[in-house]
TrEMBL record:
It is an enzyme of class 2 (transferase). It comes from the Bacteria. This is histidine kinase. GO terms for molecular function: phosphorelay sensor kinase activity. The chain crosses the membrane at residues 6-27, 243-264. It comes from Leeuwenhoekiella palythoae. Its EC number is 2.7.13.3.
Amino acid sequence: MQNRKYSYLIYFIAAVIVVTLAIQIYWNYKNYQASRQQLINEIQTSLDFAIDNYYIDLAEKNTIGLSYEGNILENKGLDTITKRIDISSQGFKGLDSLKPQDIHDIKIFKGVQALNMDTLASELRVSLDERRDVVKSFLNPRNTDSLKGKFALANRIIISISTDSIEIPEMNNYIQEQLNQKNLSVDYGYRFLNKKGLKQYFNLSQIDTTNLKAEAKSGYLPNKSTFTLFYDNIEQEVWKRNLLGILLSALLMTAVIACLLFLLKIINRQKQLAEVKNDLISNITHEFKTPIATISVALEGIKNFNRENDPVKTGNYVNTSTAQLDKLTMMVEKLLETATLDGEELALNKEEINLNEILENLVQKHQTLAPEKSIRFTALRENNWILGDAFHLDNALNNLLDNAVKYGGDTIEVTLNSRNGSYSILVSDSGTSLSKAEAKQIFEKFYRVPKGNTHDVKGFGIGLYYTQKIIEKHGGSIDVSVTSQTTFKIDLPNA
């Protein structure tokens, strides 16, 4: 039942992670699409503003309006204007030098003001190819009788130098100015087509004309002409604009997933601790059950089967009980001692000790206890002295060898190496029952390699934990590797 709940929880956390990823990816995608469309709109607006400004400035130079009272044919101020007017590729010149008293009842408007004259007006458009004499001939009605009927009733006249082409360098400046105002960095080219079919191009050979384009919608664009802007490099600009949002989204997504994984890790850890606790209780029950049962049998023997008061038999019962009590005391002390390893309560009594002597004694001891095993010790030097606590180091190394004898293979090799004042102890055995996943947990408190409900090897799972803590308190480290054999490696500084 508990395993089923744990599985459901894992599925739920996995589903939350997937949904979170999907939502964040969808949100970023929609945000990217919106930013892309906004960028396209900004380019369209920039193009229209550039066209507007180009033709407005062109009108400032190439358009004048004349407002007068009475009959144009009888107004002598026009002669003064025609003498001063100068038409060139730069527009109308010479008008600024006119004196008010020289032009009676005539007002002069330039550029957009002239185009916006909102009363009755007659208009003459002159191309750049026509000369100044054409305009002067128009402004001097004495030379053109055919104009009398057309302009006799007009009190406004607009004169505009029309153009059927664009100045590419000037147009580039206007477009680039608008793009810079909106902080847009895109590669572009364009095509201008007038009503006569004349085409002008800029930078189209470097642009993919099948990708993105914007058609100018400016009202100032000449009649029946088109202006098309082609551009690319938009994705880089969109990503640049959305970088902060994407980073924040990724950070949020990472934080949520990390929290969920951390929660899953804690739950898994709690599950393992519960298993370890149950296993520890079971081990303690089995470990304590044997000596308690033995003591009970001994006391029962003294009570019921020693009526003759045989001193020898009584002594045997007492000795057996004492040995089992000592065993119980030792197990309790081990459990209590384990509680002091994590803090600073355990004080080490360091002195000069010979590692060779400690390891040789331990190898000889375990070889005697397990004659079916082959245990060898190898050292490059006869004596290797280290500053350490002899009692705790002996117990730590004894736990390591005891672990190899209990769980390892038939061949055990102990190697002591020294280098630059530090020592390396390798304990290798030919056993392969330890998996890599179990090797990561083998130094944890009360952890024992799962073997179901069997207890063929006694213990509480604190031997390797004790060894690791003692080695660390000596400034060293211990780890285990599982390949074709199992190898424990201890590194100890000589300090």
